[in-house]
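Input.
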Amino acid sequence: MSQTASGLVAWLFPSVRLRNFYFISQVISNNHLMKLCQKMQWQAIAQLVL
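Output.
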């Protein structure tokens, strides 16, 4: 029983960790994209104004 449970945990843990990593990386890349878009917007506004 314990061997099966540890095997199940060993099988589940990497997938959960991968899913969390994917989610975190998506959040980070989304924030990075938003910052990049804001930066580009500010550059476009600055070019229009100047």
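The CA atoms of residues 2 and 8 lie 10 Å apart.
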